[in-house]
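Hi support team,

I submitted a single chain yesterday and got back a structure, but I'm not sure I'm reading the token output correctly. Could someone confirm the output below corresponds to the sequence I sent? I've pasted both exactly as they appear in my results page.

Thanks,
R.
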Amino acid sequence: MKTDKLYYGAAYYDEYMPYDRIETDMTMMEKAGMNVIRIAESTWSTWEPQEGQYNFSHLHRMLDTARKHHISVIIGTPTYAIPSWLAKKADDILALNHGGQELYGHRQNMDITHPVYLSYAEKIIRRLMEEVKDEPHVIGFQLDNETKHYDTCSPRAQKMFVDALKKQYPDIRVFNHEFGLDYWSNRIDNWDDFPDIRGTINQSLAGEYAAFQRKLVTDFLAWQAAIVEEYKRPDQFITQNFDYEWHDYSYGLQPEVDQFEAVRSMTVAGCDIYHPGEDDLTGAEITVCGNIARGLLRDNYLVLETEAQGNPGWLPYPGQLRLQAYSHIANGSNSVMYWHWHSIHNAIESYWKGVLSHDLKENETYRDCCVIGNEWKRIGSHLKNLQKTNRIAVIADNRSLTGLRLFPTETNGEYSYNTILRWLCDTLFHMNIEYDMIPADETLFSKYDCILVPALYSASESTLTALNRYVEDGGSLIVTFKSGFSDEHLKIYADTQPHILHKALGIHYDQFTLPHHVSVSYHGIAGTAREWMELVSCDTARSLVHYGHRVWDRYSAVSVNQYGKGHAMYLATLFDEAVLIRLFSEFFDEIGLKEPQKIPVTASYPVVAKQGINEQGHSILYLLNYSHDFQHVYNSADDATELLSGKTICQNEEIQLDPWGVAILEY
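Hi R., thanks for writing in. Yes, this is the structure output for that exact sequence:
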């Protein structure tokens, strides 16, 4: 979705404030160049303190004051945190999950299939929309908040699941065979005998229920979108703040939502990206999570939440907040919005700090916001709606993520699908190679010169055949261990592994183990095998790396194969990034991708280069310094304008980047 400006702002909660200061807050926002706030998503009990009794005074105070200070507003539907009176409307309105019945208190504790919940949710959405539909500065609507299925396992949800299986498998014998239910006498010969899904030991069945739960989220968001659509103007957008698997920060693909499906009911993808700060700020999370968001609709997206001060340990060093903001925009976002404006004085998130600290006064973070917001007022027209065209894609797949969760690779489950995805993505990031994130959708494959496939554990034969055909037709493929292992229902294929892909990869294996004291080495760069190791034999492929081990040294750890017009690399284990960088560099060279992304400067990490085409048709190059040190790069292309300073940068001229600094070249 195209926007008429870069949006910069924060979530704002007048109802949380210890005293009345809304005029002061929005005066400070306007001074900082902030032009948008997100409101309303967290305060159902404020809008409807008792059933049918509505009070929108805080809402209108925020809308009226925002209009006065030229601040646009995004309205969130307040359905992710229910009021206490609603929890008492039915004994089972709170979700029944694998751990038992939820208790009231925390957010996201309800059963999103419950008809009583849905009835009251529709009422509050409609009442809220009636209040805001005529406000000209409301630019869009956020559906719910970081929506999940909350592991809903209610009898109702399970009946819906069984009904879906009945339609898919009219012959129950086919269902039993497909899911291998003869094992341990789990066979079901009458749908009425279907057991509680929470007790299953059959990972195929558990994986299918996980997919069903993700579809509940897709349907729930589509239901909300349809209601909002009845009220919104054509110029207003619908979005959702999708989040990510959480490792004390945003890490990778969200397990509980099929975002590529759920986004279909929206006009723009939105996301919440949180990342480590201070010495741990790398830019990797901004890139991988932002690339997922950009890939959902293959378009610009909105960062609806990110940190200002955030968790303890994330307080930005001087320059870091500005670096982070430009990193999001360089990745294709059209906004940066902080959660939240003010630090909260009560409850569980009191130490998740906003722009302002608990004293609600100007501080260093606020002064950094002033720099960012006013720079965007000056140069934002050159930066908004950045179009990015990448030659490399990484496949992200929810069914495979579920498969590896149900069959953890290590006995302690330390490594996950997202660990493997991040291994590939972070290697590209540190090589200054930009990439797209795509689902395992064969209609998208031909758009790319090279596709990376992290642990595609669960895949249909159609998808695997399409990947083979992609290579045969001239594409390049990089595939990791545990790919092509099971079908879409997590049933392990019963022939040569990796199933079907062994043709393009030119390899096979029939045994695997966990590496202990196993090394890998390539051109003098040494590393250690971790995670999982397949004992690969090369058929038509050429082995690049063998395992360094007294027993397993006859097996290949990395191989490359020519198949038809294309090439395919196989990584049979996980190892150090330095080795992978060297392997990728030579592979890209071999297949003719010497410059998978032509960067018109000499730059290497910790300088991150990101680029695209702006609305004026000019090339924009961001140079982002993720380090404490001054960095120097050279403009190897034509003369350019450095937008932040307004200076002309001549060909071959040196550019100095301050610690945590930014430069933006327009060619």
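A quick pointer for reading it: The domain at 601-666 is CATH 2.60.40.1180 (Immunoglobulin-like). Let us know if anything else looks off.

Best,
Support desk
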